[in-house]
Amino acid sequence: MTECSAPNASKYAQIIEAAVAEFQEKGFAAASMDRISAQAEVSKRTLYKYFESKENLFRSIVIELSNRFADVFECRYEKGRDIREQLTELAWAEGRILMKPDVMAMARMIISETLRNPELAAAAQGKLDKTPIFVDMLRDAADDGQLRIDDPNQAGSEFIGLIKSRAFWPLLFSGSVLSEAEMTETIDSSVEMMISRYGV
After folding, report:
1. Strand partners for 199
2. Last residue within a domain, chosen from 48, 64, 80
3. What is the per-residue pLDDT across 118-128, written as a single tens digit (0 to 9) for each?
4. Which domain does 38 fall in, by range?
5. Residue 170, phi-psi category: left (phi > 0), alpha (psi -120 to 50), beta (remainder)
6. Is 158 strand, coil or helix?
7. What CA–CA distances, in Å, run from 60 to 5, 6, 52, 82, 188?
8. Which of 87, 113, 119, 127 has the fewest Cβ atoms surrounding its Cβ within 10 A?
């Protein structure tokens, strides 16, 4: 549940979409709840019923984006199972989300706000950083003897960095996303590089 009580799903989605556009264009400080309500085609009363303040609305967008990565949270190392399969599944859990234009729009808004308001955006970073999940899988695989890794934290950052270097950062401000074929190639290449570097 996000930071509003029992929202109507359609109105809630309209508000989130309008707020993402407003924050991205104007920045948090200059964003207007009046413009957001107008763009979302809801009354100000409805807007404030769901979101008590602009800060609350921004936090809710961060939570909404974090929730989109739920599949990544479900990825856990399975002892003895082929490591290439497991790394591929983990990469696809991340990759499927990065292929969604609405996710990229929310990420673009939050990152642009980092430049304008580092303190506000810093609170968002912890909710959105999925690197620890990659680290955990690589550490467990090393403990199980399927990989040879001295520094799982570095390896986890490298793995997620390989994916984002093609599927996230170059596309962040273009409004585009990778196709299925492009994401497949990106993930296969990233997994192959990890196996080549850390495989036993």
Report:
1. 147
2. 64
3. 776 666 666 67
4. 9-64
5. alpha
6. helix
7. 12, 14, 11, 38, 34
8. 119
